[in-house]
Amino acid sequence: MTPLFETIVEKVSPPAVDMDGPFQMQVSSLDYNTYVGVIGVGRIQRGVIKPNMPLVIVNREGVERRGRMLQVFGFHGLDRVEVQESACWRHNRFHWR
């Protein structure tokens, strides 16, 4: 497995990201917790997010609604851990209202 991993690291270029742009994330799946409600899971395409930041949530029909980020989670292995902020190209889970 080591030669395969080394070849991937050597040959595959990292994704182009915009750390300074406004926050943008495409939700790839939704989770639900009876205590906190809906949790969006996805990858950040642009920017940085922190708890209590304002958001505009756009559904697939283009309808917008305003909200705020309540909690930000990252993954440590298969475990979900709360983090103070997250940035581009980290796989994350978010709880918003």
Main attributes of the structure:
single chain; globular; 1 helix; 97 residues; 8 strands
Low-pLDDT segments, ≥5 res = none
List how many beta strands DSSP finds: 8
Radius of gyration, taken over Cα atoms and rounded to an integer in Å? 15 Å
Q: Could you tell me how far the N terminus lies from the C terminus, measured between alpha carbons in angstroms? A: 43 Å
Strand count, sense and barrel status of the largest sheet are: 6 strands, antiparallel
So how many helices? 1
Instruction: Label the structural class.
Output: mainly beta
Following the backbone from N to C, one meets helices and strands in this order, namely HEEEEEEEE
How would you state the average pLDDT, rounded?
84
Please bin the fraction of helical residues: 10-25%
General description of the model:
This protein has 97 residues and is mainly beta. The protein contains 1 helix and 8 strands; from the N terminus they run αββββββββ. The strands form 2 sheets. Strands 1, 2, 4, 5, 6 and 8 form a 6-stranded antiparallel β-sheet that branches.
